[in-house]
Amino acid sequence: MNPDNRHFALETDPPLVVASMPYTQRHRAMALGLVVSILVVSSFLAPFANQQIGRVDSFLPVVQTVMATADLLTATLLFAQYSVQPHRALLIVASGYICAGSFAFLQTLSFPGSYAPNGLIGDVYNTPAWFFVLWYTTFPLSILFYALLKDKGRMSQGSTTANIAITLSIVFVLIALPSWLVIDGTEYLPQFFTTGLMRQTRLSNQFNIGLTILAGFVLLILFVRRRTVLDLWLMVTVFAALPNFLVAAYAGSSRFSVGWYTARGFALIASVTLLSVLVAEMTMLYSRLASALMMQLRERTNRFVSIDAATAAIAHEVRSPLGSITLNADTAQQVLGAKPLRLEELSAILKDIVEASLRVDNTITSIRGLFKHATDKPVTINVENVARQVLRLLQHELQFNGVLVVTDFEDGAPLVRADPVQLQQVILNLIKNAIEAMASMPRDSRRLNIGARVAQDSFVLLSIQDSGTGVPLLDRDRVFEAFYTTKSAGMGLGLAISRTIIERYGGRLVLGDTGPEGSTFEIALPIAKGG
Length: 531
Known about the structure:
The chain has 531 residues and is α+β, with helices and mostly antiparallel strands. It is 61% helix and 9% strand. Helix 2 packs antiparallel against helix 3, helix 3 packs parallel to helix 5 (160-184) and helix 4 (126-149) runs antiparallel to helix 5.
C-alpha cells in the first residue's frame, strides 16, 4: 500500500491556489527582473545612503499605511486560499503578514512627526525602532516556518473557519503583548537611538546585522525548498526587505537620509509584491475556470440537444408500430365479440400485431447496435488512472461543495479491460451521486473515499464511499432498476446504465454498505489477461 495516497485530497489535480501552483519560466523571469532592478538601484544609491535630503513627515505615514493595508489584504487572500485548500503552512504565512501589517501601522503611530510631533504612542525614538524589530523579526520567522513545514502534514483537519479563528486569536496575542511592552516599557529595553540626535547606537547596527543574517538564512531555505509560485515570490519579498537592514548596518544612516527613504521604498515593494501576484494569478485562474465552465456548459447543452434529437427519432420510429399494435388489439376485441366469429380476420390482425412488435424490437436492436459500435472500444487500462481523471474533471464541483477527497490505491494494481470513456462515465455518475447524497450534510463532514484493491477472486475492486445520509431500506433493492429514482428531477437511468456497462465487461456494480454514515458503491472488473 502506498501511504502517500491515503490523504490524496486532490493534491495531484490541477492546482487552484498559488500555494500549490508550480512556478513557470515566466514567473522566474519576472522575479529575476525585479531582483536585478533592486540590486541596480541599491548599488547606484549606496554611496549616497547617509546623505540627508530633507525631512518629509508625510512620507512615512503614507507609505507605511499603504504597506500595512497591503499586508492585511495579502493575509486576507491567503486565508481565502486556505479555505479552498487547507494547507497549514498558509496559516503561518498569513499570520506573518498580519504581524507585518500591524507592526508597520503601530510604528507609524509611534513615529515622530507622522500623526503628531512626538508620535501618538511610545517614547518618540526607541518605540518606533522596537516596532521595526518586531516587524522584521516576526515576518521572516513566519516565512521560515512556512518553508520548513510546507511539505509536511499539509492538509488541516476540522473546520477551516475554526482554524482561521484560532490562528487570528493567537496572532492577536502575539501582537498585543510585545506592543504593550515597547509602548509602556521602553525604559526597560535597550536603546536604539540617541535621544534628540536621531542617530543610531551600536546596538542598533548589531540588530540590523542580525536581521540581515536572519533574512539571508530564510532566503537560503526558501531557495533550497522552492517549488511553487508562492515560494518564488516570498523569496522576492524577503530580498526586497534586505535594504532596510543593509543600509543602516553599512552606512549607519539616520532617519530622512537617501538610504532611509530608499529602504522604505523597497519595503513598500516587498509589501505589495505578493499581493499583486495573488491578485494576478487568481484573476487568471478565475478566467480559466470561467472558460472551462462555459465550455462544459456548451458541451452539456449540445449533448442535451443530441439526446433530444435521438429521443425524438426513437419516439417516431417506435410510436407508429405501437399505435398499430393498439389499434389491432382493439379491433381483435371487437372481432372476438362478433357473431359469427371471423377467424380469418382475427388471424390477420394477430399477424399484424406480431409484425409491429418485431418492428419495435428491430428498432431497439439497431439503436443499441449503433451506440455499441460507436462507443464500445475496450482497451487495457488502469482503474486508478481513470478514477484520478474523473477527480480532475470534478475538482471544481468537489471544492465548491466542500467535499474532502481521500484516495487509497494499491501500488502496481493490475490492469482491466474496458472502454475508458464508458468507465469514466460510470465513475463520474457514482461520484456525482455521492456529492448529491452529501448535500444536506454539514460542509465539515463531507468526505469522499475512493480506493482500489485486488480482490481474492481475481477482480480489481474500486470502491466509492460517501458520508451522506445513506440509501433508505426500501430503496436498496431497487436503486439499479431502470426509471426508478428518489430524485425529484432524476430519470432513474444512471445506475441502471452504469450496471449494464460494467456487466458488459464481465464485472459487477453493487451497493455495499449503506447507513446513516453514508453509502459505498463497488465496481468489480476482472483482471485483464497478462495485466
